[in-house]
Write a structure and sequence with these properties.
Blueprint: E1 2-13, E2 25-36, E3 88-91, E4 102-109, E5 117-122, E6 146-149, E7 170-176, E8 179-180, E9 183-184, E10 190-196, E11 208-212
Antiparallel strand pairs: 1-2, 3-4, 4-7, 5-6, 5-10, 8-9, 10-11
């Protein structure tokens, strides 16, 4: 294959003979250059191969962690069972008592030494709306029909009370009579009781009742 490519060449002619003036003349000369390109006949053998695109599935295998739930560790702390003892009361004589008066020994144990009590003859341990005790409450210590036991009495009670032993026990002598005012223990059931003193009047934790009986035919 031949290609005709026109080439334009420009020459600068300066100071040539036959030119009278020092003139620069531009001469444009057109030169046609013929370039012969030998195009070789090339046979291109194209082999078309079938390409199948298969989607690639990437599977990520994660490690399997086995989680075992363990029961919480339980710390067992040894415990001490505290047995709250109820107060106990014993009376040296409970039957065939002289209605006019019998001195008996009253012993108590298991009492709370921080709480004062009265030892007295009543129809019941807990206070009632009516007078239920023989002789009433002996706050001033003048009567022998009741005893005030208190290890930490108020100022006015110092010297008038009997103290508990450190273990909550006590032993006192009580004069037991059958009648006081409208109360007659030969007609109704009475007993030697302990009850909280007037400082803890509504506290029933110290209530103990020991039944007694009088000789009605002395």
């Amino acid at each position: 294959m031949k290609l005709a490519v026109p080439l334009i060449m420009t020459f600068l002619i300066s100071g040539c003979a036959g030119v009278t003036e020092n003139t620069e003349v531009l001469v444009a000369t057109s030169i046609t250059a013929t370039t012969s390109l030998a195009a070789k006949s090339t046979e291109i053998s194209t082999s078309t191969s079938m390409t199948t695109i298969v989607p690639v599935v990437v599977t990520t295998v994660l490690p399997i962690f086995s989680t075992t739930v363990l029961p919480k560790s339980v710390t067992t702390t040894p415990t001490t069972s505290v047995i709250i003892s109820r107060p106990k009361l014993t009376v040296s004589q409970t039957t065939n008592l002289n209605p006019n008066g019998t001195s008996v020994t009253v012993r108590g144990s298991g009492y709370d030494i921080s709480k004062g009590v009265y030892v007295i003859v009543c129809t019941q341990a807990a206070p009632g709306p009516q007078s239920t005790c023989v002789g009433g409450v002996n706050i001033d210590g003048s009567a022998s029909s009741s005893v005030w036991i208190n290890s930490n009495p108020p100022n006015y009670g110092i010297g008038l009370t009997t103290e508990f032993q450190p273990d909550g026990s006590f032993s006192v002598v009580l004069l037991v009579v059958a009648k006081s005012g409208d109360l007659d223990c030969t007609a109704v059931k009475c007993g030697v009781v302990t009850r909280s003193d007037h400082l803890r009047y509504t506290d029933r934790t110290q209530d103990v009742f020991v039944p007694i009986a009088f000789n009605t035919n002395p």
